């Protein structure tokens, strides 16, 4: 930053064409000074904002990410005519290992899914068979909802994928929020950019908009019912809405969640699918 | 010759009974020819249409590509081997790049296959010239079935969502440049065709392909650098499989029809032997061996089928010709079945198929006539003269 100022000052001290001409040189010199000071302020402010944005994103990650989690949840898929509700319990370690079991409705009860890296297995109690599903299946919708398996299992920290920028402040749902713009810094981010409305007090996003490379809004996630769980703020209700599709989206309601709890290895084995 | 003349004289003397048998057999024969004609016509058209719209003269497929496994698509793309670039340049081969994508017609979500093809290709019948554009709006072409499924028509705009090479989502509105009509469902239902240059730009998969379609002029007939060559036998295997299953089906139908017709012949033969016992004895007394007599009766039975073929030729030929011209209209629901199923099936009559039908009818008639006639050869001549054949 200092370097920038020095260069600018040196440039200012050079005899300019108007100053050599004599008339109006003092006025122009003042203008130049004002420009330099403004530029200095912009650069400094941007630096500070960037620092704040990174800190903000790190705080969000602290709240939202965990090394492991055990979640009991209910998913409500809002259809055109009726809603479908299903509950499940899932265990996950980072993005690589995940195991979930459907608890209801009766038709889905006992269906288990195991994901290890890019491979996935599904056990269906009605056929008593385990089917291996290719990793590409992860991009498909979960039980007809607005969520893909990838959406559910992606637990990479936002700070690892995106470069943040605070673009303003807004009041959302009565809460003071920072408006955070994220742009992908890695090539394999599913969404090229995101917009986050972050609760200034709890540093948790209350609304998240996910954009395509073209800038088209693809998905909106509304997070609510923020509760304190193990010294962190966490949204207990999330609504995923595919913005290109009609409908009210899919609600994911967390009934119980535990973070950073050791999960035994046998859970993430194919043997546990049939148990 | 004398035996044949006698046989014909005898059966013509049979009157109405003979003509009834001949009519039933000729009816069976015409049905057999017509049915085989429909099957052959359908399969020939399916093969021809599939080649014109989908397979070309063969394909060179990416090592990861499995046309029966949609999940292979994500990894089944790459730059074609260097040795094939000459054929791509002279357009005797055209690349096809397939991607999974989604469209949102009228706010509904629909998974599709997005297929990139060279707008200037002339190997397949697809109207790819419509994919050329100068503006920013991306045109696509779809088949009639796809248009029906997604409720889209020419000029409509629809949001398309896809993932690029790295898996990053992207979305853009596309315009339906043309809706084509094809009998080959495998290039129509659930898919959209886009200019491959646009697809390269959209995905970053520059110069990549899932498979290459070759024209008749392309000499490649073997695997190249792990890219596997698929000939028409492989690519049209589904149609051949269908032909095989139809053969079983037609065998059952023919068996039933022939059983009915030949039962009448068998019945007539049994009755003849019973009613013409003294005649048989006289033949033997006049010097014919019992074997020759049973041969005469077998020939009589076989003559029914020969007369039936002649009769069928008289009334069946104009009828089958007319049928070949008008074709057999298919209900609309069959049009979605694929495999080149069109709105009408035009039968194709092959000499080999007609000859097979003739041989089957004549041989079976001979066998069915021989079965009761063979008893004559085993009879005592004295008993035969007395008309006491058991």
Tell me what the structure shows:
The complex is a heterodimer of chains A (275) and B (390). By secondary structure, chain A is of the alpha+beta class. Chain A has helices at residues 2-13, 17-21, 25-64, 149-153, 158-161; strands at 68-78, 83-93, 97-104, 112-116, 119-124, 129-133, 162-172, 175-184, 193-199, 205-211, 217-229, 232-242, 250-259. Chain A has a domain at 63-84 and 143-257: Lipoprotein localisation LolA/LolB/LppX (outer membrane lipoprotein receptor (LolB), chain A, Clam). A 13-stranded antiparallel beta sheet of chain A has the order 6-5-4-3-2-1-13-12-11-10-9-8-7. In chain A, strand 2 and strand 3 form a beta hairpin. Chain A is globular and about 80 Å long. The termini of chain A are far apart. The relative contact order of chain A is 0.14. Chain B is of the alpha+beta class and 390 residues long. Chain B has two domains: 2-51 and 238-385, no CATH class; 59-230, no CATH class. Chain B contains eleven helices and 13 strands. In chain B, helix 1 (2-12) packs across helix 9 and helix 7 runs parallel beside helix 10. Chain B starts with a helix and ends in a 5-residue tail after the last helix. The A-B interface holds A 134, 136-137, 139, 184, 187-192, 210, 212-214, 216, 218, 242, 244-247 and B 71-74, 100, 104, 106-109, 159, 161, 163-164, 166-172.
